[in-house]
Amino acid sequence: MSPILRFRTALLALAAIVVVLVAPHLLAPYQVVVLNNVGIFALVTLGIVLLTGIGGLTSFGQAAFVGISAYATACLATMADLPPWLAWLGGSPWGALAAGLALTLLVAAILGGVTLRLSGHYLPLGTIAWGISLYYLFGTLDILGGFAGITGVPPLRLFGIGFESSESLFVLIWVVVLVSLLATLNLLDSRAGRAIRTLNGGQIMAESMGIDTFRTKMVTFLLAAGLAAFAGWLYAYTQRFVAPTPFSLQAGIEYMFMALIGGAGFVWGAIIGAGAVVYLKELLQDVLPLLLGKGGNYETMVFGLLVIVLMQKMPLGITDTAARRLKPLLHARRPAPSGAAPWITAAPPLPRRPRPAPAESILEVRGLTRRFGGLVANHDLSFSVQAGQILAVIGPNGAGKSTLFNQLSCVDTPTAGQIFFRGRTVNGRSARDMAAAGLARTFQHVKLLPTMSVLENAAIGAHLRGGKGVFSSILRLDRREEAQLLKEAETQLVRVGLGAHLHAEAGSLALGQQRVLEIARALCADPCLLLLDEPAAGLRLKEKENLADLLSKLRAEGIAVVLVEHDMDFVMGLADRVMVMDFGEKIAEGLPEQVQANPLVLEAYLGGAE
Amino acid sequence: MNAQIALLLGQDGFINGAIYALLALSILLVFSVTRILLIPLGEFVSYAALTMASMQAGKPVMLGAMLVALCLIGLLMDARDALRAGRRLRFRASKLLMPAYVAAVTGLSVTLPLEHIGMAFQGALTVALVVPLGPLLYRVLFLPIASANGLVLLIVAIAAHVALTSAGLLIFGPEGSRTEPFSDATFTIGDAIINSQTLWVIALSFILIALLYAFFEKNLYGKALRATAVDRLGAQLVGISPALAGKASFALAAFISGLSGVLIAPITTIYFDSGFVISLKGFVGAIIGGLASYPVAAAGAVALGLVEAFSTFYASSYKEVIVFTLLLPVLLWRSVAQKGVKDEQ
């Protein structure tokens, strides 16, 4: 981080501390109580922003997680005769926090374990069912006081300071909120954060870059549950009373609404959404009974309708819409920097994997067959590629080229036959294992994260070359490694000719540039085999020449390249050998000029001359 | 527990299970055609049950007002879309079909002496009132975002459930209601007493499932819906309108759940918010079927009804906890069977 930025961050933090300390003394006591609630809600909502807005996973069970932790806290704080194995935790707020967190995370881990491998519809349904289950459990268990709840939670004491008044709780709650917010911002701006951001629509790509998507989903779900557990602990000490209603499924749905209204993709949206819902609810509770008569909580109807309209008109929430309106104003003042920041360019380069020996066999395919029902997409294919060699696979549409690629990168499993990568069979290995072994690929249909910057997209490719996790990112202990990863991304982007677009959104690039960005991302993995699926499609002539130069350089470095391409001039000028496929079969293989003269190939491409 | 109690519980379980199975089938139908998890399905059930109860209690039936309001909003949205697309507003007779239908059923529901028209006609009118809710909700809520990602569709479905539940409170009030049974007759087979209501529910469920099967196998519109479920774009290319398919699947779901509401109304006391938990059990059935298989979902739903009935006997206050916790092993089994990683659309 540059000194100027560091100074601004320090100033911002100082301002926040002053506001948090002074505000409760300036506000009316009732407002302090309301803002305490907003703070607790914002903490839960922050978890949903991370989970749903950023990770694309949906949970309606966050209120139940708050409840688990609040009940654990209340139980430990009030029960006179705890069983011996729990007695050491009794009375201590830290013990209560630990117990609440542990219990919440355990339940979340079980729920996540059975739903997160499945498609995205199972997590919301699972959390709805469990939200109801836990609500009934809170209301039925005698030990939890039934629907009357648990009263008489003593005031919170930490480090000898009592938090009895709303004013003192205000300070505690908002310090926790601001720290969590900062932690989330730190997390998102890191290797672990990039992995979380791939979950929303980029999981196949992420696995091919070596990211364990199940583990990443689990971590995200646990983080959100952890934030809810913190909120539950604060809730128990703020209300000094717990009952089932605030932890019902309805409350869980309301938390989701807070995140959506605030803008689920924005970290600050958590506070804005929680505040908007709390204040709007107060307003509606005053106004609606006058319009519709007493006797129901009609504000939920208004919220339901509001969310429907919001999803139809601005699906990204208030914060996003506001940010888009404000963006031109902010940009007018601060022009975007063109190159990478100094703290990145100063980093030492990442270590590289040992180069394969010249002419080492990188890829060996024997008798590969893939059937889809009655359709034989690949039939008995055999070929090999050596280090420092470019093999072009050509053939008409539907010849089975992409199926072949998917099997080579272990996204798909062959029906029969064997693939050896650097002398070892790949049978039973996953796309992630192949990435770790040194295979990198691009996709026929570009798979980028369109709202992330070009630099960050490329850095995803270097995922396996770093090792720092969630906690290092939150505490900013990852900066040295992060600088190295981003520097690698920058180096590869400059190499492919995207050096002028580092900070642009990937989605704003032309299609040809997006393909080149995919190549840079693959190169970030420091591969020894590169699979390129139609890399030259959509490129202009000059860009094609640059790409050919780049691939020649990679060949000289000893990287093996397999590419699928339709542009014959490009292929014939570049490839060492060409393999021609038609209807799933290899019909020819050899030097470019041999293949061009092969009558079978001419027939496949131009139709038979009968 | 003796055999007689077991038989009674079994009957209860079968009745509820049959209704969960019907709901699970509608959930699967809507999901496969539109990718929407129709959470507000439960409100169709409770609206139907409570409308039937209002008729029998001689209270005014208010559901028509909601239909008229939704119909007007739909027409306004049609007009706005046409203007935006730069088309001139043109009169088409097919556009009048829904308003005419809504006007007719609403008219009947406010003018007829509903208390005295007999149970069969009350039931028919109730279902006739609930069915248009499906296509109207699809038009107003989901059509504008038909191509949005699954998350947005799910959120709107949840929001619709929340809004419809509160609207139910406004229309029907907070009191629970139960309707008269279709008939009081009982049959005795050996030691067992079989309630005729049980036979009604099970017979109607079977007839409905048979009709659905015939519709999807023999009818051109049914085949078109199946085609949309398999490949939306492909179906569109051969001339099947996705909007029509969406409305049709919603209408069918509303029809099935409206009928379920009429069937369940004499057995259980229904409140304005009871529909949700009932439909969730349909969802558990649908999940057992992997959100794809109709027969497995139906079988799972019946099994769920039986588990529920027997857990009422053994641990009545933990009934819901047991039923929803059952989901965990099912999800675990699905999880283990799952292979590979897929991107959501």
TrEMBL record, chain A:
Record bears the keyword Cell wall biogenesis/degradation: no
Q: Which InterPro entries does the entry link to?
A: AAA+_ATPase, ABC_AA/LPS_Transport, ABC_transp_permease, ABC_transporter-like_ATP-bd, ABC_transporter-like_CS, BCA_ABC_TP_C, LivM-like, P-loop_NTPase
Question: How does this protein lie in the membrane?
Answer: Multi-pass membrane protein
Q: Where is it mostly found?
A: membrane
Q: Which Pfam families match?
A: ABC_tran, BCA_ABC_TP_C, BPD_transp_2
Sequence intervals crossing the membrane: 39-57, 64-88, 94-116, 128-149, 169-188, 218-236, 256-280
What keywords were assigned to this record? ATP-binding, Cell membrane, Membrane, Nucleotide-binding, Transmembrane, Transmembrane helix, Transport
Q: Does the keyword Cell membrane apply?
A: yes
Residue span(s) of domain ABC transporter: 363-608
Q: Which PANTHER family match?
A: ABC TRANSPORTER ATP-BINDING PROTEIN (PTHR45772:SF2), CONSERVED COMPONENT OF ABC TRANSPORTER FOR NATURAL AMINO ACIDS-RELATED (PTHR45772)
What family does the Swiss-Prot or TrEMBL record give for this protein?
A: Belongs to the ABC transporter superfamily.
Q: What is this protein called?
A: Branched-chain amino acid transport system permease protein
TrEMBL record, chain B:
* Native organism taxonomy: Bacteria, Pseudomonadati, Pseudomonadota, Alphaproteobacteria, Hyphomicrobiales
* Protein's name in the database: Branched-chain amino acid transport system permease protein
* Pfam families in the cross-refs: BPD_transp_2
Q: Which InterPro entries match?
A: ABC_transp_permease, BCAA_transport_permease
* Source organism of this protein record: Xanthobacter agilis
- Asked if the Swiss-Prot or TrEMBL record annotates the protein with the keyword Transport, the reply is yes
Q: Which protein family is named in the record?
A: Belongs to the binding-protein-dependent transport system permease family. LivHM subfamily.
Q: Which domain of life is it from?
A: Bacteria
Enumerate the subcellular locations listed in this protein's record, separating them with semicolons.
Answer: Cell membrane
Note the CDD domains from the entry. Answer: TM_PBP1_LivH_like
Q: Where, by residue number, does the polypeptide cross the bilayer?
A: 18-37, 57-76, 96-114, 120-138, 150-172, 192-216, 250-272, 284-306, 318-336
Q: Which UniProt keywords apply?
A: Amino-acid transport, Cell membrane, Membrane, Transmembrane, Transmembrane helix, Transport
Membrane topology term reads: Multi-pass membrane protein
Does the entry feature the keyword Transmembrane helix, yes or no?
yes
